[in-house]
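Q: Predict the assembly, please.
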Amino acid sequence: MKVDRERCIGCRQCFAQCPVRAISLREGKADIHQDRCVECHICAYSGVCPKNALVIEELSYPRSLRSAFSDVKKPHKDTGVLGRGTEEMKTNDVTARLKLGRLGISVELGRPGVSTSFRDVQTIAMKLAPLGVHFEPENPVTSLMTDIRTGALREEVLEERALSALVEIDIPEDRLMDVIHALQEAEPEVDTVFSLCIASPLDPETGDIPFAETLRKNHIPFRLNGKTNVGLGRPFKEVERA
Amino acid sequence: MTHTLHRRGTVKELEHDYVVLAMSSKDVNREGSAPKIAEILEIFSKYHPVICGNVAGNSMRMDIPHMAEQTKDNTVAHAVFRSTDDVIELLRELREKDLGVSIVVSGLFDRVGSCCRRAGLTPHTVNVSLGIWGNKKRLPSEDVLQIETMCGHNMVSVSLIEDQIDKIRKGRLTPEAAARRLARNCHCGIFNWERAADILRRITEKESVQNS
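A: Predicted assembly structure:
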């Protein structure tokens, strides 16, 4: 993202649009801090600039990753999904990708509103990898790994930043607390926040959330609101057991 | 993508905040799904949504037919509803139409489960939020966070929320006008501006009480 300094009148309208506070005034014109900017293009999409001075640039790798992970109006080239994750549970009624007995866990770094370096993403991935987790192959972060056995990312991406990046894994249900403990250990090692979620089919006989009791027993709080796939996709897939 | 998942608030507040989304699957039924997703967006609009959208735009920026026209096979249609009655009626119609596109409802699990049962549906899969972890010192106040997380893609920045609070405080905007302004930025159309107006009012009234 850059500012066309010929056009900019220094009105500061764009400053508040930036989720990472990367825009400031330099010599009477808006200036974008290139290290902090995550190329989300929200400032341009907001339409607040009266002079169209906010310019979306063509980026080369590895900086292009910032835009690939942060600009929600562009579908990711690997997933075809708008956003940075996969379809996860949203289409599970037709894919049966998530099976009973296994849990889909997403660790979304940088959200809400803090942003993340890919070094922090690697920290989380490397905490999880030794547990033998299955990294979701269609997830864009997985595609940046040089070795899924260690969770290491390509060296050249580590100093890049994104508004958010999702580490998606799939584990057997009985390994849930191992993952939770690994994430608790990782918390002080990252300079960002992460939003955590767990997806699973409901038990078809009881209608219960299969992992809720494990969380309660271990005093891990979870929210009373979340997402429910209501089973209207076709061709419909019954809940399958792993 | 978990953009509707991490909404915050008390049970009382969340009782008026249900996000419904429709999407097809890349590997199963995406091809040719655009007309169905466009039709679902039109159906959403019949049940008094607070807001709706599909990334091409939201109902604060453009009308429904214009949005529907821009639907592609990989579009996700969204709408926010303030009552379970509307969600139940919507789910009933979607069940009858049987368009075959996956439907996800974000909201209080027990209320959503009840809506499904009353619409003759059996919930299939859930996604549960364990909240925010890590360096939480970097987060804004809980009130601002409640507004910010209504646009899970962070297109509504903390700076913009603070800017609107400042304008309300100076008497230049009402909480409703400020909340509508914020909602324009959320292209998915999942920002519940009615709830946001209540929170903005709470923030600014709390400040005026403290200053008096």
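The radius of gyration of chain B is 18 Å. The CA atoms of residues 27 and 74 of chain B lie 11 Å apart.
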